[in-house]
Automatic annotation (TrEMBL):
Annotated source species: Bombycilla garrulus (Bohemian waxwing)
Pfam families according to UniProt: Cadherin, Cadherin_pro
Subcellular location: Cell membrane; Cytoplasm
Organism placement in taxonomy: Eukaryota, Metazoa, Chordata, Craniata, Vertebrata
Positions of the Cadherin domain: 161-235, 236-353, 354-467, 468-575, 574-685
Domain of life, per lineage: Eukaryota
Protein known as: Cadherin-13
Subunit: By contrast to classical cadherins, homodimerization in trans is not mediated by cadherin EC1 domain strand-swapping, but instead through a homophilic adhesive interface which joins two elongated EC1-EC2 domains through a region near their Ca2+-binding sites to form a tetrahedral, X-like shape.
């Protein structure tokens, strides 16, 4: 157990007078506050020669040592730091005493542990010429400035030397905050400090001579800014939105609210406590939620039955949350934020049809939506617990119906996808089931209200007659006589209960070759069928016919007829080309290669037979050689003079009977010089007259 105020740790070892403090180290318990004029302790200094001109200096300007050695507070002091240094000087001696200020819990340790505090405070025990102690300065001090905040002591005196202070806050940005009296070592602050901007300053003190040369130091001087409660708690991470499932157990954590306080986290200035100021809405309970005052966790406090989304006034709650510093005391500063809590839906309600039976009417032959089935579901419309899924579970063997969900209304849209036939069935009954996209919770099941019946009435419509078969196909030879029967069409009326008559007419006959009997449907020819006509494609001619019933209004059906035309040999072959040119001095007398073509089909086409008609004149001038089934070559037997010659050539196809066509090949014999061909007509006419005279002379000779 230690004395309540002073703990004696070092004493003089003998009774002889030793110059200096008779006790050099003190430990005192830190009070809640040092009050003005309070006696802290008594220091005994003796230079063994009467203490002439004794003077004391204290490292903290808020304290002084009187001549009798009493250490006294000059004003109320709440923060004095961890240590005070007292320097004493007389004519014959000087010495330094150290007073360490301990927290109350530090006194409870063993004596051995307390003795270690000197090392923990970072204050070396060796002899020092410059003595500094940490300086504590409250932030937000008001003028006047400068203010004395501390003192640096030199144990070897200050004559002929001066103090120099440097570091951030002195000669480094932010410059000029602190300064030191060069002669006395008094440290002053020149302006208001903000702990949230800079909490600590590490300065250096040197002792220099009058020329600025360093004599002692540098020694570190720490200045700490004492926090003031000048920052409100702030909620920085908003918006704050939490979710909790309906029916959740009491005590379910919804979300965490966390505020930030820029003040010193090690003090009550930043010690936050949370509270719910207001809840909106206030039903079914004004206290639906609780917030942990220290952690900021929001939890449910009502029973699961009250946390029922479907019975709530609104599934959204807004809580005004207050964070207060100073541990929630009335003097604390506050900040607020809004927490939005959404009650999430779970699928605890099955969808139910609004009625057990729906009616629908549809015309036969029509497709599309015929009725919308309505359901009710108390779950959240924005979730799969509300969205409906419909299915037809009975009455649709032919898959004529489908049902889909309208995403906006959640209704079931029942559609006809295959046209219905009144004559087959005038009524249909469907059984429809509705479920949710999400499964129901285990203790909820689909009931009878989740199924409904749809009664569908099919209305009779006057349907158009139907051709059998459709399309119709027949094969005929081209060139059959006009008036020939092609076929007889057959159309029936689906409306078997109406006993209607049918009349026929031509709808589309591109070449105008056909007619149809209006009552019996016999199709005949009105013109020659020509396979080679441009209206025939791939040997097939197509015509359309109408079948019209006697309903009011009448209904029409369309039938398609494809006539495949067989070929007959009714086209003579044609020759190409019909013009050829050759030089009068040509060495190659193969004039031209001729080809033949025929519009008919095989075997009424090639192989073709090529022949020259009888040549006039005293001697033969050309001949023709067959190259293959479709081509032949005309060859001159000698060079001819410049002129135009007409060579009759006959071509015969292979049809039965064969057909022959005679075509004149016009041959121009031209003058050729330097790769240029001259085929002018003046000489050509002269040569032609000469040939005529020669021909006449030949005939006269033969007559004799």
């Amino acid at each position: 157990f230690f004395p309540p105020q002073v703990l004696l740790l070092a004493c003089a070892e003998d009774l002889e007078c030793v110059p200096g403090f008779q006790q050099k180290v003190f430990y005192i318990e830190k009070p809640s506050e040092f009050t003005e004029d309070q006696l802290v302790l008594n220091l005994k200094f003796d230079d063994c020669q009467g203490n002439n001109k004794l003077n004391f200096e204290v490292s903290n300007p808020d304290f002084t040592v009187e001549l009798d050695g009493n250490l006294v507070a000059l004003k109320n002091v709440s923060e004095a730091g961890r240590a005070l240094f007292v320097h004493a000087r007389s004519e014959h001696a000087e010495d330094m005493a150290e007073i360490f200020i301990l927290e109350a819990n530090e006194k409870r340790g063993a004596l051995k542990e307390i003795l270690k505090l000197e090392g923990n405070l970072g204050i070396p025990r060796q002899k020092r010429a410059i003595l500094t102690t940490p300086i504590l300065i409250p932030e937000n001090q008001r003028p006047p400035f400068p203010r004395l905040v501390g003192k640096v002591i030199r144990s070897e005196g200050t004559e002929g030397v001066k103090f120099r202070l440097s570091g951030k806050g002195v000669d480094q940005d932010p410059k000029g905050i602190f300064r030191i009296n060069e002669m006395s070592g008094d440290v002053s602050v020149t302006r208001t400090l903000d702990r949230e901007a800079i909490a600590n300053y590490e300065l250096e003190v040197e002792v220099v001579d009058m020329n600025g040369k360093t004599i002692d130091g540098p020694v570190r001087l720490d200045i700490s800014v004492i926090d003031q409660n000048d920052n409100r708690p702030l909620f920085k991470e908003g918006p704050y939105v939490g979710h909790v499932m309906e029916g959740s157990a009491t005590g379910t954590t919804v979300m965490r609210m966390a505020a930030f306080d820029a003040d010193d986290a090690s003090t009550d200035n930043a010690l936050l406590r949370y509270n719910i100021l207001r809840q909106t809405p206030t039903k079914p309970s004004p206290n639906m939620f609780y917030i942990d005052p220290e952690k900021g966790d929001i939890v449910t406090v009502v029973s699961p039955a009250l946390l029922d989304r479907e019975t709530m006034e609104s599934p959204k709650y807004e809580l005004v949350i207050e964070a207060k510093d100073m541990g929630g005391l009335d003097v604390g500063l506050t900040g607020t934020a809004t927490a939005t809590i959404l009650i999430d839906d779970k699928n605890d309600h099955a969808p139910e049809f609004t009625k057990k039976e729906f009616q629908a009417t549809v015309k036969e032959g029509v497709t599309g939506v015929i009725v919308n089935l309505t359901v009710g579901d108390r779950d959240d419309p924005a979730t799969g617990a509300w969205r409906a899924v419909y299915s037809i579970i009975n009455g649709n063997p032919g898959q004529s119906f489908e049902i889909h969900t309208n995403p906006q209304t959640n209704e079931g849209m029942l559609s006809v996808v295959k046209p219905l036939d009144y004559e087959i069935s005038a009524f249909h009954t469907l059984l429809i089931k509705v479920e949710n996209e999400d499964p129901l919770i285990p203790d909820i099941a689909y009931g009878p209200s989740s199924t409904a019946t749809v009664q569908i009435t099919v209305e009779d419509v006057n349907e158009g007659p139907v051709f059998h078969p459709n399309p119709m196909a027949v094969t005929k030879q081209e060139n059959i006589p006009v008036g020939s029967v092609v076929l007889t069409v057959n159309a029936t009326d689906p409306d078997t209960l109406q006993h209607q008559t049918i009349r026929y007419s031509v709808y589309k006959d591109p070449a105008g070759w056909l007619e149809i009997h209006p009552t019996n449907g016999t199709v005949g020819t009105t013109a020659v069928l020509d396979r080679e006509s441009p209206f025939v494609h791939n040997n097939v001619y197509t015509a359309l016919f109408l079948a019209i019933d006697s309903g009011n209004p009448p209904a029409t059906g369309t039938g398609t007829l494809h006539i495949t035309l067989e070929d007959v040999n009714d086209n003579v072959p044609s020759l190409y080309p019909t013009l050829a040119k050759v030089c009068d001095d040509a060495k190659d007398l193969r004039v031209v290669v001729l080809g033949a073509s025929d519009k008919d089909l095989h075997p009424n086409t090639d192989p073709f037979k090529f022949e020259l008609s009888k040549q006039s004149g005293p001697e033969k001038l050309w001949r023709i050689n067959r190259l293959n089934n479709t081509h032949a070559q005309v060859i001159l037997l000698q060079n001819l003079k410049k002129a135009n010659y007409n060579i009759p050539i006959s071509v015969t196809d292979s049809g039965k009977p064969p057909l022959t066509n005679t075509t004149e090949l016009r041959l121009q014999v031209c003058t050729c010089k330097k790769s240029k061909m001259d085929c002018s007509a003046s000489d050509a006419l002269h040569i032609s007259l000469t040939l005529i005279l020669l021909s006449l002379l030949s005939l006269l000779c033969k007559s004799f």
